[in-house]
Amino acid sequence: MTRWSETYVPTLREDPADAEAASHRLLVRAGFIRQLMAGHYMLLPLAVRVRAKIIEVIREEMRRIGAQEFILPAMHPAEVWQRSGRWDAMGEEMFRLRDRKGADIALGMTHEEIFTPLALELRSYRDLPQRWYQFQTKFRDEPRPKSGLIRAREFTMKDSYSFDPDAAGLDRSFDLHHEAYRRSFARLGIPAIPVQASSGSMGGSASVEFMCPSDAGEDLVVRCQACGYAANVEKATSALAPIQDGPGLPAPESFATPGARTIQDLARDYDAPADRQIKTLVYLVDGQRTLVLLRGDHSLVEQKLFDATGAREVRPASPAEIGAALGASPGSLGAVGVRDLPVIADLAIRGRRGMFTGANTDDLHLRGVDVGRDLQVGRWADLREVTAGEPCPDCGQRLQTLRAIEVGHIFKLGYRYAEALGLSVLGPDGSKITPIMGSYGIGIERAMAAIVECHHDAAGIVWPLEVAPFTVAIVVLDPDDPDVLKAVDAIQDELAVAGTDVIIDDRDERPGVKFRDVELVGIPYRITVGARDLANGTAELTRRDTGERQTLPVDAVADRVLDLRNAPGGP
What kind and span of H or E run contains 472? Predict the structure, then answer.
């Protein structure tokens, strides 16, 4: 029997001053979490209960696809990360330390490098497929941890890894995880949208993110409601309407543009529409100064530049580096005549004529630029950011954009880690084959935050039944009345026998305080028992999600809760 008076639930009357996201604000106010330092949170008893229920939902779905649970270390030797090439690639987000013997060690950001060596004990294709998973603490030195549990530096991840003999097997493991994730998020009350995504530093041929729409999200999703196309903005494309260019000029002409420093300046003052301008950016791509070209009204997605070049490090050049490369300031840059620097250009400017661009001399621009004639482009790629209203690449209807929280990510890794770490098994003909891998993750505390983002109101959290810390709160209005206590015990016993979590609010507080706390904490059902109603043989049942109240016979209230709990689509 759990009593509120014996449980640590430090609710607050006011919102924390530094909390912007609803989940951060409410999880602190309702006594679920407390911050230790930026990006590190202590989970209090109610949060521990919710976390355990989230884990159990995911565990059930992982078992359903035949996955086996492991627990691997959170501290990793540098050597395996060096062999995979990610010791340097992970950069400053990886926490690193040295032991007393001077050995380099990492705190695990993910576990591809650790599960793969474990698979070295697999001998034959007959041992495959294998699907392994764990719930383990991960560490990422986020530069800007924010929004409470949405972006933390220490968190729990369900990460799983598949090993298959061939690409068809990987497709099946990927699809099984996709369905397991879809079922998990539905049970958790998270309206997750699967979207195409960049594989980023993980590598591999394909990946899908599961995105929860939320204003607190840091990701931007592009989707088409007509046909279902959906992608992270880092991966999204669109079918831009073609632009009809005139014949252009025989050669680029220079013209003075004093004071023009932006795309808008040139469009406003020199009759150069943004969609006829070539924007020239200078980036350091693995240390190499590189020109990146886009249409003037388009923005670069840096992840697309990573993906297009395969680079480990990409950053904008500094003003000094730009001046050294092109001899001009930003706002007057261009690629006409540039032969000694690599040039990568967005597909949207391919074949364009009569364009405007900088002349690599301050306050001077060029008109009449023919991209195919005047620019030496070494690589073409999709680099631009898709915006709302552009045509869907699949059906041509208008695309929408929305903010979202990434709650899950699944990858087709391919052979990268298996080859780097020497994983092989005997194939059907006795020769060695390399297993192909997949990787699949869900952030547990982030899922908790996403649930709150989707399920709250002005009074507090409204937990879905499957993950609520308690299903029922029994509020005792007269804790010194023996008849009231006897009735409370009877209701609690009946619910407990049926497997229902109950907390009894026996505190010596005013009824209004108790009611507010139960609402703030988000318990799905509140049963109120007091001497006045009990004299009439009744108790009150209140639903947290709808606010509906019912006065019921005291011996029928538990049965009513169980009926509601077991109803399809409860609570």
Answer: strand 472-476
| Cα–Cα distance, 179 to 543 (Å, whole number) | 31
pLDDT digits (tens, 9 = 90+) for 238-294: 999 888 898 889 999 999 999 899 999 999 999 999 999 999 999 999 999 999 999
State the DSSP string of 231-295. Answer: EETTT----PPP-------SS-EEEE-TT--SHHHHHHHSS--GGGBEEEEEEEETTEEEEEEEE
Task: Dump strand ranges (E) for 141-247.
Answer: 154-164, 193-196, 206-213, 219-223, 230-232
Q: What is the 3-state secondary structure (H, E, C) of 314-363?
A: EEECCHHHHHHHHCCCCCCCCCCCCCCCCEEEEHHHCCCCCEEEEEEECC
For residue 91, name the pLDDT band (cuts at 50, 70, 90).
confident
What is the CA angle 355-361-362, rounded to 5?
Answer: 100
Does residue 291 contact residue 285 with C-beta atoms inside 8 Å?
A: no
Of the candidate CATH numbers 3.90.960.10, 3.30.870.10, 3.20.20.100, 3.40.50.620, the domain formed by 253-381 belongs to 3.90.960.10
Matching CATH number, 45-219+404-453, of 3.30.930.10, 3.30.310.260, 1.20.1300.10, 3.40.640.10:
3.30.930.10
Beta bridge partners of 237: none
Contact 70, 134 (CB under 8 A): yes
Domain boundaries, the chain: 45-219+404-453, 253-381, 470-566
pLDDT digits (tens, 9 = 90+) for 465-514: 999 999 999 999 999 999 999 999 999 999 999 999 999 999 999 999 99
Domain 470-566 has CATH 3.40.50.800: yes
Q: Tokens 């543009």: give the residue.
A: 257
Q: What CA–CA distance (Å, rounded) separates 169 from 174?
A: 9
pLDDT score of 571? 59
- The two three-digit tokens of residue 531, written as one number: 């001497």
Sequence-separated (6 or more) residues with CB below 8 Å from residue 186: none
Does this model's pTM top 0.85? yes
For 102: left if phi > 0, alpha if psi spans -120 to 50, otherwise beta; the answer is left
Tens digits of residue pLDDT in 29-41: 999 999 999 999 9
How many C-alpha atoms does 360 have within 13 Å on its Cβ side? Answer: 14
Cβ neighbours of residue 512 closer than 8 Å, sequence gap 6 or more: none
Chain centre distance of CA 245 = 41
Q: How far is CA 307 from CA 197, 235, 297, 516, 536, in A?
A: 11, 9, 22, 50, 71
